[in-house]
Each structure stands twice: as structure tokens, then as C-alpha cells.
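User: Can you help me understand a structure? I only have the sequence.
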Amino acid sequence: MRAYDVILKKRNGEKLTKEEIEFMVNGYVTGEIPDYQMAAFLMAVYFRHMDAEERAILTEVMANSGDKIDLSSIPGIKIDKHSTGGVGDKTTLVVGPIVASLGVPVAKMSGRALGHTGGTIDKLESIPGFRTSLSEEEFFENVRKIGIAVVGQTANLVPADKKIYALRDATATVDEVSLIAASIMSKKLAGGADGYVLDVKVGSGAFMKTLEQATELAQAMVGIAKSHGKKAVAVLTNMDVPLGKMVGNSLEVLEAIETLKGNGPEDFTELCLNLSAWMCHLA
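Assistant: Let's start by predicting it. Here is the structure, written out as C-alpha cells:
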């Protein structure tokens, strides 16, 4: 099999097989396929897209490229939450404790800043002395003992996504639904949860600017989850204005604490309760 032939096939709008997708992804991770051929492949996908089966295969191959977390030793149904990101989005800091207090175990790996928005890990690390790098034993013990743990992603979790995303960022192929969905869901599958609540932001402050784009991404991610036997629901939420009143890592932590005390902004409180309800429903 040659990378040239796989690129040509997708450039011509044909459907790729599992073997062809595995060849491209695994070959790129190992260095056998150079940047310029992977860039051409990504551009072919950008213009010709992938169908639901191709997306599911791409996600699976990427998820299997590195470490996978086994949460089976933690009792109960583990539900993860993912947000596509927006200004003032600090929902994990509120939703996690709410859901954990209701008996649903929250074993969550979160990311850092993406684009103009701070990540959950960045926000937590604005708390003096807070540690987000835990051993696997500490991570599991915290979930068993207090019902919740939030940590940064391990270095070898989905290395295919790290490498492919860097190339997408440099080749103007970030905003293609199949590639976005596979990037997000490969990390979710590797994280080991039983189901996912997907908060897809739409509006001027989000990656998805229109309702049509956000709906397409939401449907793609839910489809990928279900094709791998996982529960999933997507919620489309407004990002034409910042979420809540505080923007900035430490300020958002303070607002999250006030929200947990019942003193949060109405829009932020409503969204957190909505996401929490869906997580409990799936569990």
C-alpha cells in the first residue's frame, strides 16, 4: 500500500477502507509517512469529507495509537463531559462536583487552552498549590474516596491526535467536521468513560459559528460514540456572548465557587444544571 494511492482515492471522493485509514494514521505516527503526504491527505479529507463509517474508523485508529485508560475498577457508570470551548466556559468546575454529589463517579481528564479559551487544567492550576498531575493510583483513589478527580491528559494519550492536530493547525485543515469529531472523540474513547455529554458551543465566540455547523458536529460526535457502543447526548449552547460574568482563569474559578454556593450568574447556573441533569440521566 502506498500513501500516494490513498491520497488519490480520497481526492477523487472515494470511500476509504479501515486498512487504508490505519495505514495513513499509524504510518504518520511512526514517521514512515512524511508531513507533506499527510498534509495532502488532510486537505483531501477537508474538501471531500468522510462518511459516518470512515469517521468511526478514524476515531478508533487514533484512540488506539497510545495509552488507554481502564476505569472498570471504579464502581458505577462513568460519564464524561466535553465542551468545544468558549469565552468564560468553566462548566466542569461546577458540573463535576454537582454530579459527584449525586453519586455519579466523575473520572475526568481535561485539557489546556485551545485558541483563545483557557482549559480546565489552566483554571485549576490558578489555585495556589493545586496539583493536576496525579499518578493513576491517586486518580482512581480520589474517585473512589470523594467521587471526583480531574487531571491533565497523559503524555501518551492519543499521540496520533497531537501530531495530526499540529499539522492541521499549520495547513488550514482544522475546521472540517470529520477531523474535529475524530480528534475530540478519540480522546474521549481513550479516556475510558461509559458515556458522554457533549456541550457544543455555537456563535461568534465558538469554533462553530452557525447552528448548521454546530448541529453537524454534534451529530457526528454522537454517531461516533454510538458506533463504539457508548452512550452520548449533545447539547447546543450559545456562545455569542461570554458565559457568566467572569473571564480569566482565576476569576472563573471564583465564579464557579460562587455558583456552587447558589450565587452564580443565571445563564451559567442554568447551563450547569442542564449538563448535570444529562450526565445523571445517562448514568
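Now, to help you interpret it: The domain at 3-48 is CATH 1.20.970.10 (Transferase, Pyrimidine Nucleoside Phosphorylase; Chain A, domain 3). The chain has two domains: 3-48, 79-282. Let me know which part you'd like to focus on.
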